[in-house]
Amino acid sequence: MQKLLEKKVKVQYVPCKKANTKRAKRFLDNRAPKLTENIKNAMIMKGGNTSMTVTQALKDIYALKKPSAVLYKKKNITRPFEDSTSLEFFSKKTDSSLFLFGSHNKKRPNNLIFGRLFDFHVLDMIELGIEKYISLSDIKSSKCPEGTKPMLVFAGEAFDHENDHKRLKSLLTDFFRGPVVPSVRLAGLEHVLHFTALEGKIYMRSYRSLLKKSGCRTPRIELEEIGPSFDFILRRTHLASDDLYKTAHRQPKALKPKKKKNISHDTFGTKFGRLHMQKQDLAKLQTRKMKGLRKRRGPAAAAAAVVEGETSPKTTEVE
Amino acid sequence: MAACSIEDVLAKAEQDEAEKLKSITVQKELDLEFDIGNLVAYDKNRIDIRQFREQKKEDFLRSLARDNTQLLVNEIWKHPTERVEEVIVVKLPEPTTPLPREKPPPKPRPPTKWEEFAKLKGIQKKKKTNLVWDDVAKNELHRLRNIARAQKIKVPGVGLTPTAQQSKTDLARAVNVAKSSTASAGKFQDRLPKEKAPRNTGKKRKFQPVIGNFSNEKQRQLDLLKVMDSKKPRLDVNKAVNKQMREDDREESAAKFKKGGKKGRKGGNFSGKGKGGGGKGKGKGRAGGKGQGPPSGKKGAGKPGKH
C-alpha cells in the first residue's frame, strides 16, 4: 500500500512553449538558440528614483540603439547588483540580452548600469556614473539616420591594461556595434563613437564623419559633433567568472570555416592542387602519334625500308 | 633646357603626391589595432595628459577622434569593393574580437519516430536515379511495335514486362491490368479495404471530327433529342434484373455478417471478405446503372420482374 502512495508525486505545472500555428512556430524558432544569432536586443529601464539627466540620457542611448532596443516607461524598483531576477524575467519576455538600467540616489547620483546576459542569466554588469552630460537635443546639428552602423574607437592605455576596462570595452562594443553585415556602403560610414579612457574617467563622444575629397581614393575625414556626449566615471562592477565567460564564448563546431582539402600553397604563393586518379597502364596511354618519331627497329628495319622504297615507287615515304 | 624642365616636372609631381598623402596620413607612435568586421579601432597610444589639460578638452578629444577615425577609414578603404545596384559597397571580413553569445549553441534535435524506426530496421535512404524517358529509345520502341503489328506477333501489353525502377504509375497500371485479366474482366476481384476503384482505365473515347459529315451529325443530334423526349425510361431489363439480384444477395450477406459479428469475432476474416466483395459489387452496379434512366423507375420495374 505504501508503494502506491509513494508513487503519487506532485508534478509542478510548467507551461511548455508549444506552437499551434505556423506563425507561432516561426516566432519561437526565431527566439530559439541558433548557429548564427540575431542582433542583440537591449532593454533600457529606469530604477526607483531617477533624475532628469538620467531620463534624458536613457532616451538618447535608446535613440542610438534603435531599432534593436526597448525603452520602458515605468519605474522598476529593483537593484540589479543585489537581485537580478526581475531583469532576467524581462529579458526572457522581450528576448533581450543587453540592458541599461538608470537610477539616481544620494550615494550614487546619475547612475547607469550597462549589462549583458547569457542564456537569460546575468553575465557582466558595469556601473558608470555620469559626471557631465550634453544631450542630443542640446547640440544643434543634423543627425545621422537611425540604424546606421557606427564606427567605434577606443583610445587610451587603460582599455588595454586594466581588466575592468577591458570588459567595459567588450561590453560597449557588444552594445553599440549593430548588426553584423558582410558589406557596408562606403558613403554610409557616417557615425563615429569615440571612447577615451583617461585619468580614471571615460569620455564618450559621438561624431558625424564627413568624407572630404583628398587627392587619392581614400577620403579625408572631418568630424562634426552630433550626438550625446558623456563624461563617465567607473563605479562598481560585477564581472562574470572566468569559466562562465569561457562557456559564453564557446562557438558551435559548425561555424568553423571548412578547410578545403587537396589545396596547398608553397612559399611563393603558388596554388597547388591534388588530383586522385586510378592507376593507369602507361604502356597503353593514348598520346598523339608523330610518325617521324616512331621507333625504328635497327639496321634490318632500315634495309627493309629501303627494299620497300625500291619495290613500290609510288609510295613516297618522308623520313 | 628640356632636361631641366623634365626634372622640374618630376620634382613638382612628387611634391604634389606628398601633399595629397599628407591630408590622409596620421603620425602615431603605435599603430592602431583594427577589427574591420565590427568597424572598431583600438588606439593603445599614451595620451598626453598635459596637452589634454592645456588645450580645451573638447578640441583635444575631437582632434584625437579625427586622427583615429582617419586611420580606421584608411584601413577600411584598403578592403575590396564592389558595385551593387549603383552603390559602391566594401566587403567586410569576419569580425575578430571574440564577443560572448546570446544563448548557448543549439543542441542536436532528438531523432524523430521515423528516424528511430529506420535506424532500428537498418533502412537507409536510397536516392532514386533520375531516369528520364529517352526520345531515341521511344522511336525504337514504336518501330518494333509497328513491326510486331504488321507481322501479327503477339506483344505483351503495358506493365507486364517489368523494367528496373518502375514508378508508382507503372506499378499501378500493371496491377490494374493483372486484375482485369480474369474470366469476368475483373468484376469479382476483391479489393483491399481502402483501395479505390480505378477510373481511368478502358478505351479512350473516340470523338468525331469537328467539321465533317453534316448529315451524320444532324442525324445523331435528332436521335438524341428523340431519346430525351420520350417519356419511357431506357431500360435494359436483363441488366436491371441482375443488378437487383446482386443487391439482394449483398443485403443477405450483410445481415448474416451482422448476426455473426454480434455472436463472436472469430468469423472476422470471412466477414471482411464478404463485405469487401459486396461493397465492390455495389459500386460496379451503380456505375453500370448511371448510363440508364433514373434509378427509382428501374427499381420499380425490377421488382415485379424478379417475382
Automatic annotation (TrEMBL), chain A:
<protein>
    <recommendedName>
        <fullName>Ribosome production factor 2 homolog</fullName>
    </recommendedName>
</protein>
<dbReference type="GO" id="GO:0000463">
    <property type="term" value="P:maturation of LSU-rRNA from tricistronic rRNA transcript (SSU-rRNA, 5.8S rRNA, LSU-rRNA)"/>
</dbReference>
<feature type="domain" description="Brix">
    <location>
        <begin position="40"/>
        <end position="243"/>
    </location>
</feature>
<dbReference type="InterPro" id="IPR007109">
    <property type="entry name" value="Brix"/>
</dbReference>
<dbReference type="InterPro" id="IPR039770">
    <property type="entry name" value="Rpf2"/>
</dbReference>
<feature type="region of interest" description="Disordered">
    <location>
        <begin position="288"/>
        <end position="319"/>
    </location>
</feature>
<dbReference type="GO" id="GO:0005730">
    <property type="term" value="C:nucleolus"/>
</dbReference>
<keyword id="KW-0539">Nucleus</keyword>
<dbReference type="GO" id="GO:0019843">
    <property type="term" value="F:rRNA binding"/>
</dbReference>
<comment type="similarity">
    <text>Belongs to the RPF2 family.</text>
</comment>
<dbReference type="Pfam" id="PF04427">
    <property type="entry name" value="Brix"/>
</dbReference>
<feature type="compositionally biased region" description="Basic residues">
    <location>
        <begin position="288"/>
        <end position="298"/>
    </location>
</feature>
<dbReference type="GO" id="GO:0000027">
    <property type="term" value="P:ribosomal large subunit assembly"/>
</dbReference>
From TrEMBL, chain B:
<feature type="compositionally biased region" description="Basic and acidic residues">
    <location>
        <begin position="217"/>
        <end position="237"/>
    </location>
</feature>
<keyword id="KW-0690">Ribosome biogenesis</keyword>
<dbReference type="Pfam" id="PF04939">
    <property type="entry name" value="RRS1"/>
</dbReference>
<feature type="compositionally biased region" description="Gly residues">
    <location>
        <begin position="267"/>
        <end position="280"/>
    </location>
</feature>
<dbReference type="GO" id="GO:0005634">
    <property type="term" value="C:nucleus"/>
</dbReference>
<protein>
    <recommendedName>
        <fullName>Ribosome biogenesis regulatory protein</fullName>
    </recommendedName>
</protein>
<feature type="compositionally biased region" description="Basic residues">
    <location>
        <begin position="256"/>
        <end position="266"/>
    </location>
</feature>
<feature type="compositionally biased region" description="Basic and acidic residues">
    <location>
        <begin position="188"/>
        <end position="198"/>
    </location>
</feature>
<feature type="region of interest" description="Disordered">
    <location>
        <begin position="179"/>
        <end position="307"/>
    </location>
</feature>
<keyword id="KW-0539">Nucleus</keyword>
<comment type="function">
    <text>Involved in ribosomal large subunit assembly.</text>
</comment>
<feature type="compositionally biased region" description="Basic and acidic residues">
    <location>
        <begin position="244"/>
        <end position="255"/>
    </location>
</feature>
<dbReference type="InterPro" id="IPR007023">
    <property type="entry name" value="Ribosom_reg"/>
</dbReference>
<comment type="similarity">
    <text>Belongs to the RRS1 family.</text>
</comment>
<dbReference type="GO" id="GO:0042254">
    <property type="term" value="P:ribosome biogenesis"/>
</dbReference>
